[in-house]
What does this fold into?
Amino acid sequence: MKKRIALLGASGSIGRQTINVITQHPDLFELVSFGVGKNIDAARNILKQFDLPVFAVEREEDAELLAKEYPDKTVLCGEEGLLELARGDYDVLVNALVGFAGFAPTLAAIESDHEVALANKETLVCGGELINRALALHGKSLVPIDSEHSAIFQCLQGNRMRQLKRLIITASGGSFRNKTRDELQSVTVEEALAHPNWSMGAKITIDSATMMNKGFEVTEAHWLFNVPFEKIDVLMHPESIVHSMVEYVDQSVMAQLGSPDMRLPIQYALSWPNRLPLDEPPLDLAKVGTLHFSEPDLERFPLLGLAYEAGRKGGNLSAVMNAANEVANAAFRNHEIPFPMIETIVIGAVNEAPFEELNSVDDLIRANAWGDGYAREHVRKLN
It folds into this structure.
């Protein structure tokens, strides 16, 4: 039986690589629906490859245009379109959306009894407790696509969680890992987007440069694996060969190694518990030669420390942090603020937010709006 895939965020980096994995194994995987944002040319290209009955785009005007081009297909739009796809007829949702927009489709997929392969870390950063509650209620599972969490997931196979000592998440350090804080004052967007190892979307690449992305991954690991924050460590690893590690009570450390290619964790999320051949060059450790590891400097990367702090306190703080970061990240990419101002805005939002418990989706939406509004006001004052 082919596994039927619904893909959200199909035009982004993870989306494109998911399609590559599907096309490598047409006997095992079938794309049945997809969603894109404003890139309607990407939608047209996907429809050249796959004869699909339904897809979604972000804007209503694009949906109307494409409905005329494809009169035999159902063209959905906006958040409601994504939710309709998430509640549709398929086996696994691959959520490759970026930002808070990914939360609602993940929840909708679970509540309509679907499995989820998750690349949208904000789903768990903002609403991990709500997602885990839904997973338990509906008896569904969530398999990670992020390379670090896929690595942990793989290292946990065949072992007992009660024998786990700690999780070790590796971090490349991003585009500016060798720069001092003084040197960050004048860095450009183009420099920030030049990640030394990974090919990722713009937003995630900037988050990697601030290490906000690694902070998100710590929070994501907390909810994915039900591990307290004090048992989740981050280790700097500039080569990005060891994707993460698990240490057990007998001091044994299991690591997952691989080239920095997201197709591997994507494919494993879709094929688990099986492994499939993947058309990529094998990892040549002799060529790599040396691997380096070091402790992260939380003064140099304060957003990593902030994520730990917000996660431990719980409630609405991680959602506020994420919302403020989305705005500040976009403002930097739009040349509205300097790079260090991202940290200033996000830290200010978390420190000034009134603490609230998260008991419902409405609570989460309110937290997101607070962080978004705080950051937009501070960006406005700088322009």
Q: What stands out?
A: Residues 361-381 form the longest helix (21 residues). The CA atoms of residues 331 and 337 lie 6 Å apart.
